Amino acid sequence: MDLVKEIKKAISTGKVYFGIEQAKKAIKKGEAKILIVAKNCPDKNFLGETLENVKIIHFDGTASDLGSVCGKMFDISVVTVVDPGESSIIKEQ
Asked: What is the pLDDT of residues 19-54, one digit of tens each?
């Protein structure tokens, strides 16, 4: 599976949130299915929370790299996948 391709597909056809605070909210609400975390995420403490039914993918790149993959001009430390859309990111992980 090409992770970059599947992230882009999830963004364009599904529902995702960007950032640590949005990830925390989605986890609390039980919406989060997958967290894609950049290797230099500044606050990995939230990953210690109870994450039942939430898969974590460690993105092998910086927050800047992840932001670029997402088509954003800013750093993104965490991408939260709520609905993968046509992406097979949940099935493959």
From this structure: 999 999 999 899 999 999 999 998 877 776 657 778
Sheet with 55-59: list strands edge to edge. 15-18, 78-83, 34-38, 55-59
Residue 78: CATH number of its domain: 3.30.1330.30
Question: How many structural domains is the chain composed of?
Answer: 1
List the alpha helices (DSSP H) in the chain. Answer: 3-13, 20-29, 63-69, 89-92
Q: Is residue 90 part of a domain?
A: no
Backbone phi and psi for residue 4, each to the nearest 5 degrees, phi listed first: -60, -45
Q: What is the dihedral of CA 60, 61, 62, 65, to 10 degrees?
A: -140
Q: Which residue has the tokens 């599947």?
A: 6
At 83, which helix (H) or strand (E)?
strand 78-83
